[in-house]
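User: Hey, quick favor. My workstation is busy. Could you predict this chain's structure for me?
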Amino acid sequence: MSCSICRIPLCEECISIKDNEILCSKCYIKSITKKNIKNNPTKDTLPMKSMPIVTRDRVKLFLKDAEEKQKQKDAKQEDENKILLEKKKDKEKKVITFCNWHEKRVAEYTCFKCKKFFCRDCLGGKKIKDVYCKSCWSSIKYAGVLSRHLKS
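Assistant: No problem, here it is.
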């Protein structure tokens, strides 16, 4: 079996019979669209939904909503700009501190006990979140030994 228009061979599943003619899918679609165009001179093949009635009040509400959204966007943008300016100022204000015992080395830590700045070489020890310089660490380290020795 083949299409009566384009003569393409068809299987039984692809066959559609219309007005005693055997048509392939392409020819069938073409025949439907031709008939729809002839029946509808406006060339509207699909039914259109009716448009809602637009009143002045509805337009005013739409404009108010648009203005409010724009104001919110502007406010958000201003907040973001303020945060960026503050971050830039913080970077500019950043002061380089030097080690309390080494004049030419940059300080990386602050001692929890004496509050002095020191470099990696002067690091005495760390306890969870606290950092101690060597001098304070030695006093902490031997404090338990001295207290036991003094008691006896």
